C-alpha cells in the first residue's frame, strides 16, 4: 500500500484491549439495527469512538465473538481513527482515558491500547484465545451466591464433582480433532472447518471473588481452554459435557462416542453450560508483531520529520519534499 505523508500524518490504527461484564449485552459484536432493544459491546465501543469526533467512519473489528451473557477479562479489537483539523493522533494513554470516560455508564472498560500499522488485523493476527469457565458448588440458586459472583459463575447444587474423571475426559479433547459434535448450528456452520487444535484443557480449584468476605467457604472450580480459535458455543458444550462426567451422568467412554460421532445433533439436549460462567480471559499476539508495529511507526515518524526539516531548509525554498511512505 502506498500513501502520501499528507494523507497519513493524522490517521492511526489502534489495537485496543477491553473487558466487560456481559450480562446486560447481546454479545461482543454489533447488533443489527432492528434488534437494538439490547446492544452488543461493539455498539457501545463504536459510540464511544464517535464521541471523539473522528474525521473517518467508525468501524471496529473485534477479534473474538462472545455470546450474550458471556464476559471478558480481555478481548481485543482494532479500528482506524483520523482526527479533524490536522490534529495529531491520540497517544495510547490518552485514547484509553477518553474512551473510558465515554463508557463510564457501561460495564465495559478499555484496559490498554497499541498503535499498529494499517494492515494489522485483530482477529487474523491473534495467535491464541483462552477461556475460563467458573463453577460454584453447593448452591441451588444464583440468589444465594454473594453479589460478586452472582451471574459470574455456574452454580451447581452438587457439593462435589468427580474431578479425576473430568480430567480423564478433558485429556481426550486436547490436540487436533473434528469437534463437530461440540458446535452449535449457526448461519456460518457450513463455511467453517470443524477441525480445531486445543492446546490446553485444564481443571483446577478456583475461588470466589468474595472469598475473604463471605460468611461461608464456597468450593469453586475453573475449567481452562486454550486454542487459536473455537467453534460456535464449543467451550460451553465441552464444559457441559465435562461437568456431566463429573456428576456421573455421562461416562468417559460415552463422551468419547459423542466426540467420535462428529455430529452436532448427537450432543445431548440441555447439556451445554450456561453463558454466565464463561469468561474470555485473554487474546494473545506474537510479541514480534507488536514490536514490528512500533518499529514501523517510528520509521514513519522519522520520514515525516525529515520531510518537515527539508521543506523548512532555506537552501531548498522552491522544492517541497513530499515523501512516499511504502509498506
Automatic annotation (TrEMBL):
<keyword id="KW-0413">Isomerase</keyword>
<dbReference type="InterPro" id="IPR020103">
    <property type="entry name" value="PsdUridine_synth_cat_dom_sf"/>
</dbReference>
<dbReference type="Pfam" id="PF01416">
    <property type="entry name" value="PseudoU_synth_1"/>
</dbReference>
<dbReference type="GO" id="GO:0160147">
    <property type="term" value="F:tRNA pseudouridine(38-40) synthase activity"/>
</dbReference>
<protein>
    <recommendedName>
        <fullName>tRNA pseudouridine synthase</fullName>
        <ecNumber>5.4.99.12</ecNumber>
    </recommendedName>
</protein>
<keyword id="KW-0812">Transmembrane</keyword>
<feature type="domain" description="Pseudouridine synthase I TruA alpha/beta">
    <location>
        <begin position="169"/>
        <end position="285"/>
    </location>
</feature>
<dbReference type="GO" id="GO:0031119">
    <property type="term" value="P:tRNA pseudouridine synthesis"/>
</dbReference>
<keyword id="KW-0819">tRNA processing</keyword>
<keyword id="KW-1133">Transmembrane helix</keyword>
<dbReference type="InterPro" id="IPR020094">
    <property type="entry name" value="TruA/RsuA/RluB/E/F_N"/>
</dbReference>
<dbReference type="GO" id="GO:0003723">
    <property type="term" value="F:RNA binding"/>
</dbReference>
<dbReference type="InterPro" id="IPR020097">
    <property type="entry name" value="PsdUridine_synth_TruA_a/b_dom"/>
</dbReference>
<keyword id="KW-0472">Membrane</keyword>
<dbReference type="InterPro" id="IPR020095">
    <property type="entry name" value="PsdUridine_synth_TruA_C"/>
</dbReference>
<comment type="similarity">
    <text>Belongs to the tRNA pseudouridine synthase TruA family.</text>
</comment>
<feature type="domain" description="Pseudouridine synthase I TruA alpha/beta">
    <location>
        <begin position="18"/>
        <end position="123"/>
    </location>
</feature>
<dbReference type="InterPro" id="IPR001406">
    <property type="entry name" value="PsdUridine_synth_TruA"/>
</dbReference>
<feature type="transmembrane region" description="Helical">
    <location>
        <begin position="295"/>
        <end position="316"/>
    </location>
</feature>
